[in-house]
Amino acid sequence: MEIVGCERIYTRYDMRATLASGQTFAFTEEGGSFYGIADGRPVEIRGSDGGYDIIFPPGDAGFWRRYFDLDRPYDAMLKPFLGQNDGTAAGSTFSAQGESALSTGCGSAFLSKCVGAFGGLRLLRQPVWETLCAFIISANNNLKRIGSIYRRISGAYGAAVEWAGRTYNAFPAAGALAAAGEQGLRGAGLGYRAPYLFDTARAAAAGGLPDLDAMAYGDALKYLMKFRGVGEKVADCVLLFSTSHQQAFPVDVWIERALRERYGMDGTRRELKLEAQKMFGGAAGVAQQFLFHGMRSNLI
């Protein structure tokens, strides 16, 4: 169905890989198209001419350009990872010290393979509040169930937005979740995470959230970890998927496996994170997402 009175942006970025890579839970797929809403703004994504049309109401182009990170020079960022698959990608940003500390170069080769397979994958720049809540929900959860709970909460407590013949349920504001109460959130399937989200909603409703982009990475990380149920991994996810702090490097079970099995690293998850940040430098967040998607996709 053609949508009248809309704006659209065409991109060759891989929206399917991007939306399925564990960054966002605000989208559903129907008939080959993706439907989602962020910051109360609905959007439809359709495959078109080897790429994708991002379709949205007039006036939202700036928001969606930022959300999908459409203006960052990914070709230049990814070039270091597309060199030789011998452990030393051409023009690599990895430090010599970091590489020599590893027993083999198979990690670099694997990352190059991930970028080659999923080169259109992009990092999202989502609203901080929605991302914070999504990753509180994510604790000890799988992607399918996280998305189900996220949308259930949106349906129960979020505002309904009508557009192009569809009803979209926006993710609730902090005040709406605080008003829902802990028991209301338990009823949405949150289980033991309900008090975490409830306390976070009350705090955010009372004082708002600061501009995390204006804070140093370490300060932003510490700020987020003050919320109940937010550990270092969740805080790093929030920063990586909603702010400009691209050195954030969340270490979950997939990334831990990648660093241990592909790079020969050892230590606690925090030690693995610090070593990876040292090795990847300013490309840490981008490298993390490609490694994560490659491991989840069983790329060999």
Walk me through the topology.
Elements: E1 7-11, H1 15-19, E2 27-30, E3 33-38, E4 41-48, E5 51-56, H2 61-67, H3 74-78, H4 96-100, H5 106-117, H6 128-137, H7 143-157, E6 160-163, E7 166-169, H8 174-187, H9 194-207, H10 217-224, H11 232-242, H12 253-262, H13 269-280, H14 284-296
Antiparallel strand pairs: 1-5, 2-3, 3-4, 4-5, 6-7
Helix pairs in contact: 5-12, 5-14, 6-11, 8-9, 10-11, 12-14
Largest sheet: spatial strand order: 1-5-4-3-2
Counting helices, strands and paired strands, the structural category is alpha+beta
Strand content: 5-15%
Approximate shape: globular
Cα separation of the termini: 40 Å
Describe the structure.
With 300 residues, the chain is α+β, with helices and mostly antiparallel strands. It folds into 2 domains: 7-67 and 126-242, Hypothetical protein, domain 2 (Endonuclease III, domain 1), CATH 1.10.340.30; 74-119 and 247-296, no CATH class. Helix content is 47%, strand content 12%. The chain has 14 helices and 7 strands. A 5-stranded antiparallel beta sheet has the order 1-5-4-3-2. A hairpin with a 2-residue loop joins β3 (33-38) and β4.
